[in-house]
Each structure stands twice: as structure tokens, then as C-alpha cells.
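Table 4 source record.
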Amino acid sequence: MLRKAVLFKVKPECAAEYVRRHNPAPPEVLKIIKDHGVSNYSIYLHEPTGMLFGYFECENEAELEKIGDYETSIKWWKSNAEVLICDPSDPNKGKEEELREVFHLD
């Protein structure tokens, strides 16, 4: 099992909208995520800065990458790109910066 953590940022005026879109998240998106071995998925918002911290566990990288093969996933990412800071080279998905794990305790 792999543990993954990412940082990304919501546009300052869009934090409430990002929260609304995830409560609840679309069931069809959640099914795709779960079907590809993702579990224990949480996203946290640091309201003063708009920084988002995402954590999840997945079975392997190959299954994780398959999530992007679905039109449903692509539409969800594009929708959220409206409220997230995006990398200019990929304006259809929020810019995520993967974090390196330095400590873990079970």
C-alpha cells in the first residue's frame, strides 16, 4: 500500500465553492477512485492561505493513473480547475505538488 500526500491551492474567492463541490462529491467520481484502489482519502483546507492538503492510500501507481482514463474524472477535474490554482501548462487540473514522506508511525 502506498501513502500519498499532495498540496494544492484554491483561488482566494473560491474556498466555499470548493468545499460545497465536495460535500458530497459526485458518487460516480468516488466509485472510480475506489475501483482503482484508493482508500483513506481526505482533503483538508487551511482557510487563512487557501492551501489544500490531500492524503490518500492506493494499491499502486498504475491503478492510480487509470483514474484519468475516464471522461467522468476529466470532467470533475475540469470543473474543479475553475476554483483551483492551475499550472499554466495544464489548465484543466489543479496544480498538485506531491509531498515526500519523511516519517510514519502505524
